[in-house]
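sry for the spam today, last one i promise. struct tokens for design, 509 residues
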């Protein structure tokens, strides 16, 4: 028997692990392999100490298909606590051993197997409102900022907050700045980096780290609340203006009404231009002479509205200043996905945006990188753009060179963490296996630690319970999951019920 390691997935695809120097090499099928299968798969070496996990790279095998699912089951006894490294199981060698292996998961009869009910396609709004609980951090942030704005607005209307009454337009602009900050990829990249740099230390308590993670992943609640509040404040400003229309100009009223309409329609760029027009017209208009001042510069720089609008403009424009058209290598391991390869290594947990055009169709994907010279994205063929990557691979794509951080980046906050992924969700975590990471350094794979779960016999595994059990054995501080809305919710709820902090995507953008 050849000295190789082999495992199978529940989708009937068998893999072999073979040496390869290039961590992002795409191996074309040989003539014999082509006759068996038209697909080929990417392979990579594991970076640094983690190379002991998979001594070689993964490529598609031409051996028979299987219905076996390989679950790497960690044992706390295998942990080197001094190094903070996870030791994973050695993958079972050879198909003869595969036949003789007895799964440790109890047999379930066909009657006991859960039937896969057809699920309706849920909108992201319905997931946020109905599927994630009543008192999520996202909803609490939304409620807090909305209540603060409504309270200030009521006080202004009743005459108990004179500053807000006479500066209602400024409060609208301030809310627009707040919502822009909560969605600025450049600003949040700095915030996430500072959070990890300052709080990612062993002496910082776990409660502070988990609270920070909850806050950073739920900033969309502030974004949504401030968006609604900005409309309320602008309506109030217009009402006050119309009451004393003799002290303003028709142009200011018209521009303010247009800005309000565009905010309600989410027409960002046009609204930004009209916001500048509104600020300049308002500051330059003299109600006494009923005319506009000629010398405007010295007056503008003294006004808060000017500086807030300037900050909004910089935050919005900054990512677009980094847009570049760069060469890429696109290959398709199957008709359902494409692999896009770029030059330059990136840190783990980073995401990026690509597009066929600089002005439309920007798509975000998780980035897989060894942190050295290259990185890549895996794009499922689910829309016109991603399908075209399979049918007509481009030689160049437009990219934003400001890459942004998301929930996976906050893995760097913790020292012991369990990552759970289903389907293509695994891509966003692969960089943590390719690069050194304080939370999940991999150093070995002891014998006899493979669980083979035959979904044809046992049905789908209970991923939620498996996650809870693995987190307890490993002593994980937190669990982070990337799956579909239902799968993420189930894992997060199961872990929290067991007293284990857990986070998953909240589908708010």
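last one done:
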């Amino acid at each position: 028997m050849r000295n190789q390691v082999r495992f199978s997935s529940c989708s009937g695809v068998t893999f072999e692990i073979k040496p390869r120097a290039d961590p992002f090499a795409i191996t074309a099928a040989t003539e014999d392999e082509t006759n068996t299968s038209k697909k080929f798969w990417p392979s990579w070496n594991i970076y640094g100490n983690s190379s002991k996990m998979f001594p070689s790279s993964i490529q598609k095998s031409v051996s028979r298909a299987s219905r076996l699912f390989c679950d790497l089951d960690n044992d706390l006894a295998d942990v080197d606590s001094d190094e903070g490294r996870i030791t994973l199981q050695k993958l079972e060698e050879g198909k003869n051993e595969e036949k003789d292996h007895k799964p440790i998961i109890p047999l379930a009869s066909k009657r006991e197997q859960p039937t896969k009910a057809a699920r309706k396609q849920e909108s992201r709004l319905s997931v946020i409102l109905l599927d994630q609980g009543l008192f999520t951090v996202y909803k609490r942030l939304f409620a807090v900022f909305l209540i603060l704005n409504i309270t200030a607005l009521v006080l202004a209307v009743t005459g108990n907050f004179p500053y807000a009454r006479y500066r209602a337009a400024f409060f609208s602009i301030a809310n627009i700045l707040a919502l822009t900050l909560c969605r600025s990829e450049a600003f949040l990249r700095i915030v996430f980096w500072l959070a990890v740099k300052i709080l990612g230390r062993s002496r910082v308590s776990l409660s502070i780290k988990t609270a920070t993670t909850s806050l950073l992943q739920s900033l969309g609640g502030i974004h949504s609340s401030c968006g609604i509040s900005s409309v309320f404040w602008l309506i109030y400003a217009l009402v006050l203006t119309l009451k004393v229309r003799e002290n303003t100009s028709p142009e200011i009223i018209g521009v303010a009404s247009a800005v309000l309409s565009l905010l309600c329609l989410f027409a960002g760029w046009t609204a930004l231009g009209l916001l500048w027009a509104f600020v300049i017209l308002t500051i330059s208009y003299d109600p006494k002479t009923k005319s506009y001042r000629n010398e405007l510069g010295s007056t503008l720089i003294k006004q808060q509205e000017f500086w807030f609008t300037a900050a909004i403009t910089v935050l919005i424009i900054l990512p677009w200043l980094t847009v570049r058209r760069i060469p890429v290598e696109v290959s398709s391991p199957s008709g359902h996905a494409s692999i896009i390869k770029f030059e330059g290594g990136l840190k783990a947990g980073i995401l990026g945006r690509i597009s066929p055009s600089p002005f439309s169709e920007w798509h975000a994907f998780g980035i897989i990188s060894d942190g050295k010279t290259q990185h890549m994205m895996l794009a499922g063929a689910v829309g016109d753009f991603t399908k075209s990557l399979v049918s007509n691979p481009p030689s160049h794509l437009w990219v934003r060179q400001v890459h942004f951080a998301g929930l996976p980046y906050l893995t760097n906050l913790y020292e012991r963490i369990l990552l759970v992924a289903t389907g293509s969700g695994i891509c966003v975590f692969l960089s943590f296996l390719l690069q050194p990471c304080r939370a999940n350094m991999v150093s070995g794979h002891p014998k006899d630690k493979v669980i083979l779960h035959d979904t044809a016999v046992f049905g789908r595994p209970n991923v939620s319970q498996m996650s809870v059990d693995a987190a307890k054995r490993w002593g994980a501080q937190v669990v982070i999951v990337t799956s579909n809305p239902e799968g993420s919710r189930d894992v997060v709820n199961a872990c929290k019920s067991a007293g284990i902090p857990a986070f998953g995507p909240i589908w708010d953008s």
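Residues 124-320 form one domain. ok im logging off now
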